Amino acid sequence: MNAQNTSSNYMTTGHAQASNYTTSPPAESESRIDKAYITSIRGILKFIALLFSFIAFVCLVSTQKCDGTHVFLATVTWLVIIMQVIIIIVFVFRLQTKFPGIDFEFLDFFATAHDALYLLIASSITINYCRISGQVAGGIMGLLAFLCLTGNAIAIFLARRDETVTNTNSNNIR
Hints:
Blueprint: H1 28-32, H2 35-39, H3 41-62, H4 69-92, H5 104-129, H6 133-171
Helix pairs in contact: 3-4, 3-6, 4-5, 5-6
GO cellular component, one term: membrane
Protein name: MARVEL domain-containing protein
Membrane topology: Multi-pass membrane protein
């Protein structure tokens, strides 16, 4: 995403707003928090993935321990929570506009896909090797978080692809 394109691609047609305010500046409360991101499919999927990751973490640390595979999933879920909260903060408080040189959309895609892959691996290992019901429940919650993060990564990819096609088509007009 180039520095000139300031409109966010997570906005649906119902949430589309002009990013350059020619007539009047936005209200003070609107300029700080991006409510469109919270209600977008990407924001909702991130919050659901956070919820599943937190439930998986609680399931893992509250049951008796098995042979150590639960520690791997507990660590992965905690790291997923930290990374996704940072990404949510960046987009909700519009910090991506303060740093135009960093492509936060690509960073979001990479981090989300990375987190989803690690959740898949850790959850599969925990479900396969632990037979304690709380550990298995944590693994299942990790798989549900994996599904939400995978859907989020697909939504980011499709939005980036559509943005690239739109920019390419508009540059070819003579």
